[in-house]
Amino acid sequence: MKLMRSTQRAQVLFVLLGLVSLLLRGAESFDYTAINCRKHTASLKDFGGVGDGKTSNTKAFRSAVASLSKFQNDGGSQLFVPPGRWLTGSFNLTSHFTLYLHKDAVILASQDLSEWPIIGPLPSYGRGKDLPGGRYISLIFGMQLTDVIITGDMGTIDGQGAWWWQRYKTVLKSNRPYLIEIMNSDQVQITNLKLIDSPSWHIHPVYSSNIFIKGITIVAPPASPNTDGINPDSCTNVRIEDCNIVSGDDCVSVKSGWDQYGIAFGKPTKHVIIRRLTCTSPNNAVLTIGSEMSGGIQDVRLEDIVAIRTESAVRMKTTLGRGGYVKDVFIRRMTMKTMRWAFLMTGNYSTHPNNNYNRKALPVIDGISFSDMVGNNVKIAGQLDGIKGNPFTGICISNVTLSMLPTSKFAPWTCSDIKGLTSGVSPKPCGMLTAQVAKRCPFPTDILPIDRIQLKKCSIIAKL
């Protein structure tokens, strides 16, 4: 026992001496919080990285991750991306690994298609969103990982998306890549970064669990196609908070597969917390549920949101043949400034992967609650359209005050094939939403497991 303690002290002393040596040689220390800290550290420069914005670093990133992967079972590893502009094609991450970006680091997505391998479509979709068939792998990708972190001191990941937006309908033969996609993984952290101009969606966790996303700034032009901010897809236990998103599509879109492919795959999205977001999306929504929701979506909790110049606050999209369900969605404390719609639900969003979908597969929409919301310069309070013979049920709206745009020529509410209750809503809702005095819509009080995670104080010591 004494010998073991002596050996442990010697190991600690050795590590401390190494850190002191690094600091004396001009290295700096950077602190961050994470689900787990790492024992081993390397810099991208150690693998030949050149941050001039012109030299390809694809080989450097791939070599760095491959080399550091040997430490998965020895305390994990972290890769430091120093100041500079680091041009790269796609690269994969590994388990028990942290990718850390210095505040002056920019990872630039390459425009050389040879640096983007093509992979098959997601099984729950059956095809890509732009085109049938495969897709370019995401810039930063991980599959079947455990304990993976992408973080920094607000360093930047730039997708250089304009190049892709101009070509995806004419030149590209495969579907556009996402900026970050983590697939079939557990314990995922993406924090304290700036993401700009993704070729398509910015962050896409899919078939994964225990996902923590915080302190992310996302910026893409309003006219950029399909540049959603954060899209949890067939995931369980997701926490998204303290993010600022300006995008050309939905700020957050919760999904779970498309028509017959999503039904067969059968992996729902469950237990999602979204809080303290500021969102601008002139052509889309703060939160969209669907339209791909064939695997089911249940228990989504959104609160403390500011929406500015956004087409709609909350949008739900489905159609005949989609199947699946959306149940137990809770929204409260939202401030809306200049909106076309506050509430938008449609049962006729008829996009399909092909003509082989089951036309008898009816989606179930039930238990949707909105409370404590205010808005100004709103054109339309709500357009709520279910499916004939298959109404959306359990809608509850309470304590909502919307100031309508004085020049609006639209009726404040239009409704069809829905059932629900309201209390304290202005302007007065449609007749299908029955008024109840002094009733408040529910919001869960239990604490989800993803809200119980304990972050550790970690550090990274590296030369700039």
Topology:
Elements: H1 2-24, E1 27-34, E2 40-43, E3 52-56, H2 58-68, E4 77-81, E5 84-88, E6 91-92, E7 97-101, E8 105-109, E9 118-119, E10 135-136, E11 140-143, E12 146-152, E13 155-158, H3 162-165, E14 180-183, E15 186-196, E16 203-206, E17 209-219, E18 236-246, E19 252-254, H4 259-265, E20 269-280, E21 285-289, E22 297-317, E23 325-346, E24 364-385, E25 392-404, E26 413-416, E27 418-426, E28 433-435, E29 456-463
Parallel strand pairs: 2-4, 3-5, 4-7, 5-8, 6-11, 7-12, 8-13, 11-14, 12-15, 13-15, 14-16, 15-17, 17-18, 18-20, 19-21, 20-22, 21-22, 22-23, 23-24, 24-25, 24-26, 25-27, 27-28
Antiparallel strand pairs: 1-29, 9-10
Detailed description of the structure:
The protein is mostly beta strands and 464 residues long. The protein is built from four helices and 29 strands. The chain has a 21-stranded parallel β-sheet that branches. Strands 6-11-14-16 form a four-stranded parallel β-sheet. Strands 1-29 form a two-stranded antiparallel sheet. About 2% of the residues have low confidence.
Task: Indicate the overall shape.
Answer: globular
Number of E-type strands = 29
Number of helices: 4
State the low-pLDDT regions, or none: 10-18
Please sum up the structure shown.
The protein has 464 residues and is mainly beta. It contains 4 helices and 29 strands.
